[in-house]
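A reminder from the course coordinator: this example appears on the midterm review sheet, so study it carefully.

Given structure:
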């Protein structure tokens, strides 16, 4: 896991101060790779890399160069390939030799052998750029669900790229511009985003499951994979057997590491599955006890408030799992002041306002685990793939005509500055993106009405909501030089489950009913039957007081930049009512009162730090 950046100009030699520019770009990514840095410089291509060592400390240095009789190939890469062993064997049979055992070398030589078809041979999380010196061609690719990030921009015939947007702004001439689309992304879609876009004008992300080629003919982007709809012919027993096989295989493949590895355990179904398979593997291989980690907040048990979205707290279920596993458990307890004080860091990690303390808590969790571990497996993505969210079942959400995790459209519009609100129409933009995405869904003639309906909501959830959570996982973890892996996001598992009829997927009328049924033989019944509870948030009333005080201090300054973007009168009303005047969650299930105020604090922090120019 790492960060990389660089720039390529096919037509002209890059000027001398490009080395200084490259170094500045790379230094902006230092938190992603605290262990090593590396550089490659030629007439037309400049690559830089910040490394977090996970596999093959000596053999995995980057940028990695392969000299061949028909030219040199240079790679910068961020990620982890889980079928490295099989790929290496294929390449050895085709005459390749290897200096080490890292996946970087396998990708590079795989590209030399397969060309752009290499993307069809990779199982993992990845973003990489490969320079072909003879053909003067840059190849970039990103994993199936966009677990690892990659951004780019074209400025004066130069393609500039990086693992995070902050690296792009170190390249002279690339500006921080917020236009109508950017405002609509930030305040209409955010903290989600339309695949391929960013909130900044002329800065793009390489979409998940896409590759790009940049050469003398310009830039061409292609899609290499998508969820394909086909009739599911397996019966329940066969389906259970195959899902369990894919789960076990995905988890065990992701346990490879040359540095300490752990799992995050919340006591929920998803993290319990990951931990159970991982602990069993450790025991089978006679490895030391698996370390598990959970997060909690000071006085949370005293202040917990039950809701439809968060029906119970985690501690009882974590203890239950620990009694049933061969693991060594650690409980990380975070205090309220920390959550508020790290709102700034979590905004910097994302390069934009995010999910408020939902972000800062994960950032702090990873920060506390990092001194003992470098890699963690999490249960992220199970809800998106197996149908675990309330909106899969609630008629009001299914019939909302918009993204069901972001239905407060009129409130978002009201939050815009009155002058901007006359020019930027959030509902029109959201409707366009919503309908555009639905047009991509493959519906079969054999699909039942319910399965067809659930395909649509599943597609939206996988490509929008899940992407937001994956962005969060990558940025908050890598800000600490820490790697998170997501076995449920294995593209083979996602493809198979995509075609399971909804009636089977929601077995017994339960969210993730099929997954629960599969796990009933190896997890405690209380875990299997536990109602979904999302990533824990603080219920301590001191958090509301803290963020309210932070936002009040901002609004006491009439020159605060937030006043140029948002509706000052409405924000003061939100403060007066402790957030209740904004009647629905800002995003997802948890971003209500305190989280909304924290988000508004992040908006002002972002405006102060990035100082975007508004261009309408």
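Designed residues:
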């Amino acid at each position: 896991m790492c960060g990389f950046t660089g720039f390529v100009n096919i037509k002209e030699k890059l000027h001398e101060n490009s080395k200084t520019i490259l170094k500045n770009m790379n230094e902006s990514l230092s938190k992603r790779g605290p262990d090593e840095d590396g550089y490659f410089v030629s007439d037309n291509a400049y690559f830089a890399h910040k490394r977090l060592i996970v596999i093959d400390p000596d053999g995995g240095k980057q940028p990695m160069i392969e000299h061949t009789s028909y030219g040199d190939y240079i790679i910068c890469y961020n990620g982890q390939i889980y079928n490295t062993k099989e790929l290496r064997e294929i390449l050895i049979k085709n005459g390749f030799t290897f200096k080490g055992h890292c996946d970087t070398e396998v990708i590079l030589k795989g590209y030399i052998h397969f060309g752009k078809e290499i993307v069809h041979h990779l199982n993992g999380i990845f973003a990489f750029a490969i320079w072909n010196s003879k053909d003067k061609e840059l190849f970039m690719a990103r994993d199936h669900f966009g677990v690892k990030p990659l951004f780019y921009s074209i400025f004066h015939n130069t393609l500039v790229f990086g693992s995070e947007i902050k690296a792009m702004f170190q390249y002279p001439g690339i500006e921080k511009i917020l236009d109508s689309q950017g405002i609509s992304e930030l305040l209409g879609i955010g903290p989600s985003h339309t695949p391929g876009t960013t909130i900044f004008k002329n800065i793009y992300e390489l979409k998940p499951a896409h590759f790009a080629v940049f050469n003398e003919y310009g830039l061409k982007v292609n899609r290499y994979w998508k969820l394909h709809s086909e009739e599911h012919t397996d019966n329940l027993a066969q389906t259970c057997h195959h899902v369990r096989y894919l789960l076990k295989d995905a988890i065990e493949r992701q346990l490879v590491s040359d540095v300490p590895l752990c799992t995050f355990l919340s006591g929920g179904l998803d993290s319990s599955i990951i931990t159970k398979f991982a602990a069993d593997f450790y025991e089978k291989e006679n490895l030391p006890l698996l370390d598990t980690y959970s997060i909690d907040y000071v006085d949370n048990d005293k202040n917990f408030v039950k809701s439809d979205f968060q029906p119970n707290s985690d501690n009882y279920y974590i203890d239950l799992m620990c009694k049933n596993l061969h693991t060594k458990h650690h409980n990380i307890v975070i205090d309220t002041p920390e959550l508020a004080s790290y709102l700034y860091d979590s905004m910097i990690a994302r390069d934009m306002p995010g999910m408020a303390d939902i972000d800062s808590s994960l950032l702090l969790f990873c920060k506390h685990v990092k001194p003992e571990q470098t890699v963690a497996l999490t249960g992220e993505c199970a809800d998106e793939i197996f149908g675990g969210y309330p909106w899969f079942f609630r008629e009001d959400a299914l019939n909302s005509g918009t993204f069901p995790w972001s239905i407060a459209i009129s409130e978002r519009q009201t939050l815009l500055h009155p002058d901007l609100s006359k020019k930027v129409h959030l509902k029109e933009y959201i409707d366009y993106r919503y309908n555009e995405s639905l047009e991509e869904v493959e519906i079969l003639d054999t699909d039942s009405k319910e399965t067809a309906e659930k395909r649509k909501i599943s597609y939206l959830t996988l490509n929008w909501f899940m992407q937001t959570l994956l962005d969060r996982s990558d940025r908050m973890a890598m800000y600490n030089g820490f790697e998170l892996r997501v076995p449920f996001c294995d593209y083979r598992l996602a493809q198979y489950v995509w075609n399971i009829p909804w009636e089977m997927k929601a077995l017994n009328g339960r969210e993730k009913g099929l997954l629960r049924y599969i796990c009933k033989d190896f997890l405690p019944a209380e875990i299997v039957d536990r109602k979904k509870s999302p990533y824990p948030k603080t219920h301590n009333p001191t958090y509301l007081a803290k963020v309210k005080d932070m936002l009040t201090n901002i609004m006491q300054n009439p020159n605060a930049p937030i006043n140029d973007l948002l509706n000052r009168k409405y924000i003061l009303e939100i403060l007066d009512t402790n957030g209740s005047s904004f009647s629905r969650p800002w995003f997802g299930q948890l971003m209500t009162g305190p989280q909304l105020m924290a988000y508004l604090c992040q908006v002002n922090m972002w405006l102060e730090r990035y100082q975007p120019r508004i261009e309408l």
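The CA atoms of residues 81 and 124 lie 4 Å apart. Confidence is low (pLDDT under 50) at residues 307-311.
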